[in-house]
Amino acid sequence: MAEREPRRVVSGMRPTGRLHLGHFHGAIKNWIAISQKAECFYFSADWHALTSEYKDTSGIAQAQREMFADWIAAGLDPERCTLFIQSQVKQHAELFLLLGMVTPLGWLERVPTYKEQQEQLAEKDLNTYGFLGYPALQTADVALYGADAVPVGQDQVSHLELAREIVRKFNHTFGKGEKPILVEPHAYLTEVPKILGTDGRKMSKSYGNAIELGEDPESARKKIMAAVTDPARKRRNDPGNPDICGIYYLHKAYSPSETIDLVNRECRTAGIGCVDCKKLLLQNLIPSLEKHRAARAALDREPGRIEALVQLGTQKATRVAEETMDRVRAAVKLT
């Protein structure tokens, strides 16, 4: 966690539709907590969605609406933070272009997730400038609002470090006074930085291993009961290692401490089997999913509310972004 209290926070999420448990524990839960003490801007990263989904953009608008609804249903209060759409604030593209002028190609190629995603999503053509350069767009997303803190998952820390380097180089190249043009952001890691999917990998819709935040109870049961556990535990009497098991990660997120302790102890000694462990998880997971489903249903009974909130937020974000671009254009001598 960042050592000092944040003043202004910016973060975004690609509009892929309904949220899953990894989204909540890797980002939303922390967003909610930070919105109680800082000015927060949270956006739909629809331009970022194009980096891997550019061949079919037909579902982005609906996915965006679903995502905003899940944010609010999960507890994000639009009265305490600004919700907006990235592509409707054109200053993101302008600053992205200017940052691209000073960002070395080698910096982008060294981002760990660049090659990792290409390998994991081999069925998609990700050999594009947009995919390579999206860390620079992420930098623009944050720098536009003068954010001093960014809540990120562990897999995004390298991108934030790169963002700091890009901001630093931009300030050095164009800044002539003592006050920097753009603010260097710092990382705020979530308490649960990673939730494993049903196949043991990071939970992701792209991998088909996700459990939605509002998953139907019966569907959730089927997914959990079929989920991969410790691959070395082939028989009921084999001791297991909960530290590599996705079910144990979910226990730590949803089960009370006594259940977590029991699972940790009994798994290692083969005191309980994987089926029993999964049933214990469902006792606490299902009620949480049903609570979210109820909150979503309440939002769906108010047509137009989400769109109105996002429109107001986008207008505010545009005003703040333009203030930053006034300084940037002056520094680059483009006025």
Which helices and strands, and how do they pair?
Blueprint: E1 8-13, H1 21-34, E2 39-44, H2 46-53, H3 60-74, E3 81-85, H4 91-100, H5 105-109, H6 112-120, H7 129-143, E4 149-152, H8 157-174, E5 186-189, H9 217-225, H10 246-254, H11 257-268, H12 274-300, H13 305-332
Parallel strand pairs: 1-2, 2-3, 4-5
Helix pairs in contact: 2-7, 3-12, 4-7, 4-13, 7-8, 9-12, 10-12
Explain this structure:
This protein is mainly alpha-helical. It has two domains: 8-195 and 303-332, Rossmann fold, CATH 3.40.50; 214-299, Tyrosyl-Transfer RNA Synthetase. Helix content is 53%, strand content 7%. The protein is built from 13 helices and five strands. The strands form two sheets. A three-stranded parallel β-sheet has the order 1-2-3. Strand 4, helix 8 and strand 5 form a beta-alpha-beta unit. The protein starts with 7 loop residues before the first strand and ends with a helix. The mean pLDDT is 91.
- Overall pLDDT confidence: 91
Question: Could you tell me how far the N terminus lies from the C terminus, measured between alpha carbons in angstroms?
Answer: 39 Å
Q: Give the neighbour order of strands across the main sheet.
A: 1-2-3
* DSSP strand content: 5-15%
The CATH superfamily of the largest domain is: HUPs
Indicate the CATH class of the largest domain.
Alpha Beta
How many alpha or pi helices? 13
Based on secondary structure, the structural category is mainly alpha
Largest sheet: 3 strands, parallel
**Number of spatially distinct domains:** 2
Overall helicity: 40-55%
Principal-axis shape equals: globular
Low-confidence runs (pLDDT<50, min 5 residues)? none
CATH architecture of the largest domain: 3-Layer(aba) Sandwich
Strand-and-helix sequence, N→C?
EHEHHEHHHHEHEHHHHH
The third-level CATH topology of the largest domain is Rossmann fold
Number of strands: 5
Q: Give the C-alpha Rg.
A: 21 Å
